[in-house]
Amino acid sequence: MNKKGLSPMQKALVRRETISAYLFLLPALIFFVGFVIVPMILCLVTSFFSYTMTEFRFVGLENYFKMFQDEIFIKALVNTVLIVVVSVPAVTVFSLWVSSIIYKLNMAACSFFRCIFYLPVVTGTVAVTVVWKWMFNKYTGLFNYVLTSTGVVDQPVSWLGDSKTALWCIILILFTTSIGQPIVLYISALGNVDQSLIEAAEVDGANDMQVFWKIKWPQIMPTTLYILVITTINSFQCYALIQLLTSGGPNHSTETIMYYIYYQAFKLNQYGYGNAMGVILAIIIAVFSALQFKVAGKGND
Amino acid sequence: MKRMSPYKTISVVVIAVLAVLFIFPLYWILTGSVKDAAAINAAVPQWFPLAPTTDNYIRLFSNPALQWLFNSVFMAVMAMILTCITASMAGYALAKKRFVGKQLLFSIFICAMALPKQVILIPLLKEMAFLNLHDNLWAVILPTVGWPFGVFLMKQFSEGIPGELLEAARIDGAGEAQTFIEIVLPIIKPGIGALAIFTFINSWNDYFLQLIMLNSRTKLTISLGIAKLQSEMSTDFGLIMAGAALAAIPIITIFLLFQQYFTKGITMGAVKG
Q1: What is the pLDDT of residues B140-170, one digit of tens each?
Q2: Which residues form the domain of A8?
Q3: How far does A258 lie from chain B, in Å, by closest CA?
Q4: Side-chain half-sphere exposure of A96, counting CA atoms within 13 A
Q5: Is residue A197 in a domain?
Q6: Of A97, A94, A242, whose CA–CA distance to A175 is shortest?
Q7: Which end of chain B is more exposed for a tag (fewer CB within 10 A), N or C?
Q8: CB under 8 A, 24+ apart: contacts of B129-136
């Protein structure tokens, strides 16, 4: 609407509506500004300071330079990217496959499976992680019992204590707690695909594969994009699993950026340095999300 | 109905097997929580607890586990109520009102949502210390309410309110508050249900935020309490499983009761605005 063409009466109406709109928005804005925007700004500002328990001194970009000479940070970055690169495609493909099968079953079976795959999310990271920790235990864990008794391995494996296996254990648990939401989303998206298009294609003799790729896939693309972005954000922020299972060890082999930020800020009181790494993490996530929009958005519109 | 192809049949069987594997950790928590030390540490695992015992639960309640449970409930309920109030009001305004700065405000909400919320925890902790809320459950509740997902979700639900109804109410001389309570709220009720259950579960399980904000033993939530027990007695798996069961059972019950609302919330939140 063009403001210039408004009569004084209409202007008064617009003003009245603006005031009432902001009154409705006010409670949410207080919380949003107070506990999201303000900390975000503080995070950015203090990342340029040497900020510890005793010191608060402007150092410019020093924290940012320091980061890329910090071997543990580099290791954490590599691990984090590895987790994302493995888990995001695995979660997306697996949940699409499961959804494409179960959404065609009858209602009861479909909601039953959807519920089962969502349960690890609801159960909560801590409860899920402690039971996995027990199952991975070298002496009393299920994995070693099953694998030694079936002869797959001859010696019990220290799953979480070995730098070759620990990160993969974490990726596995992350996977089981990440697919619930994508499956719910895909089932709903597949159910909304225009049925008349599918029928028309089948009349024209298209097989299941062709129907899927030519008709359903383009229509569920926005959902795929959303799933890619949320799974990426969640995988980048992987923290609780690491803290509860391995504390970043052995030998920093399961260190992630989020875990290292926590370690620097709350164990070593290096708040400025921690915030600088947080800023970099946010930028990396933004770049990944933008890339996914670019790649997945192609051919969509 | 078409006959199922062999590919479909095999897939369904594979998915059924996977479903059993997915449910297994939960089964292992529940059965582990009633096993005695001998059964927990047995070289050959007891697939089914042969001599169930309540010993683990007795030891669990020698810790302030009930207090932890109460803290979790209080935190999640408060976050849920405040989020529902603030988000339904804001969502309605964003969807149905024309005002200066609407587009900008909505873009800011969306951008904030795409950022990783965990990176602001350090300044958030400082802010809570400044507000004298450190080691206080409100330090967990307030940031949960501030997170813009609820506003976004309620905007999606409010788009469906017919404009004519609002117009009619205005002509009848209904005030803003009256219109909101009598016309808007009944229409967006399913949305509020979805947001309520979503906020409750997310807040209950937001371990990292709780970990940063809460310290003293009586202030812990149930998730933190279990993590604490694990760090103190890392091989007492019976006790830890009892704790995990205590943390998981209430939230799973709530999820199963309100599943429809929950699914709706997840799907609506994904629709592009």
Answers
A1: 999 999 999 999 989 988 988 888 888 888 8
A2: 1-30
A3: 8
A4: 18
A5: yes
A6: A94
A7: N
A8: B134/B213, B134/B215, B135/B213, B135/B214, B135/B215, B135/B216, B135/B219, B136/B213, B136/B214, B136/B219
CA atoms within 13 A on the CB side of B214: 27
CATH value at residue B129: 1.10.3720.10
Domain end residue (candidates: B57, B73, B95): B57
Using alpha carbons only, what angle is made at residue A114 by residues B116 and A201, rounded to the nearest 5 degrees?
Answer: 100
Domain presence at residue B74 = yes
Instruction: Give the number of domains in chain A.
Output: 2
Cis previous bond, A250, omega within 30: yes
| Sequence-separated (6 or more) residues with CB below 8 Å from residue A233 | A285, A289, B114, B116
Residues A135, B87: C-beta atoms closer than 8 Å: no
Going by the DSSP 8-state scheme, the letter that residue B97 receives in this structure is -
Which residue did the predictor score with more confidence, B74 or A160?
Answer: B74
Same domain assignment for residues B135 and B200: yes
B198-252 confidence digits (pLDDT tens): 899 999 999 999 999 999 999 999 999 999 998 888 778 999 999 999 999 999 9
User: Within 13 Å and on the Cβ side, how many CA atoms surround A243?
Assistant: 22
User: Which CATH number goes with the domain that contains A215?
Assistant: 1.10.3720.10
- In this predicted complex, what is the ipTM? 0.89
**Which residue carries 């991975």 as its tokens?**
A136
- pLDDT confidence of residue A246: 87
- Whether residue B244 and residue A28 make contact (CB cut-off 8 A), yes or no, is no
Cβ contact (<8 Å) for B143 and A36?
A: yes
